[in-house]
Design brief:
This is Orotate phosphoribosyltransferase-like domain-containing protein. It is built from five helices and nine strands. By secondary structure, it is of the alpha/beta class. It has a single domain, classed as Rossmann fold, CATH 3.40.50.2020.
Length: about 230
């Protein structure tokens, strides 16, 4: 599918695999159709979630900087279209007052959620992907210290956790009296990488490196021409 890209990182030893979306604009400029397709996918996840568990309180949508910013906003738009009166907040890495939590595998692991005086019993965490579940688990734990949370819905485009990791998150939430559900497309749940897909990823990675080298050569040439 042209909306999803699974790559190999060479700049983060804590996270070798990478997943990104067309709507994030990390590989190519994102178009309105990219946003519409990703928004439609979130809309289908949301509708299914609301059928399974009805909304009983006002909601706070949480997006994690940086890759969760666009997915969280797309979800905000979908919730707004359904007259759910959503609220939206993003984490930041700046030292400001708020709830601190950790994203261990990130290049910038320390996050702060700028929440002070507020009261939400239902939280929606919207991510591009769930890798191990440790980040959302830590976030839920920290939120529970400040808010009287009853339900957490986690939405993501991909879920790469093992079955043990998935169960651990749900079990932990139950222990602190939170009903936690995870909503992701079946296409990108935990799966083994096959050789053909791996070869495709390597090819895309090589293509990106070649494009980068071309850009660098072009910039060097322009600099030389300016000097002359």
């Amino acid at each position: 599918m042209k909306d999803f890209y699974h790559l190999k990182r060479d700049n983060n030893p804590l996270r070798e695999d990478a997943f990104t979306l067309s709507c994030l604009g990390k590989l190519f400029p994102a178009s309105s159709s990219d946003f519409n397709r990703c928004g439609d996918l979130l809309a289908s996840l949301l509708d299914k979630s609301l059928l399974e568990h009805h909304l009983e309180d006002r909601i706070l949508i949480v997006g994690l900087t940086e890759s969760g910013i666009i997915p969280a906003f797309l979800m905000y738009l979908e919730a707004n279209r359904r007259d759910l009166n959503p609220h939206l907040v993003y984490s930041t890495r700046r030292p400001i007052p708020g709830i601190a939590f950790n994203e261990r595998h990130s290049h910038g692991p320390d996050h702060i959620l700028p929440l002070t005086d507020c009261c939400f019993k239902e939280i929606w965490i919207v991510e591009d992907e769930i890798t191990s579940g440790n980040t959302v688990l830590d976030l839920i734990n920290k939120l529970n210290e400040y808010l009287e949370i009853e339900r957490v819905r986690i939405f993501a485009f991909a879920d790469f956790r093992s079955s043990q990791q998935s169960q651990h998150l749900i079990s932990y939430a139950e222990k602190i009296n939170i009903c936690c559900t995870v909503h992701t497309p079946a296409l990108f749940r935990k799966q083994k990488q096959n050789p053909k897909v791996e070869a495709k990823h390597q090819s895309l990675k090589m293509e990106m490196k070649q494009q980068k080298l071309k850009m660098e050569k072009k910039q060097q040439k322009l600099k030389m021409e300016k000097k002359q």
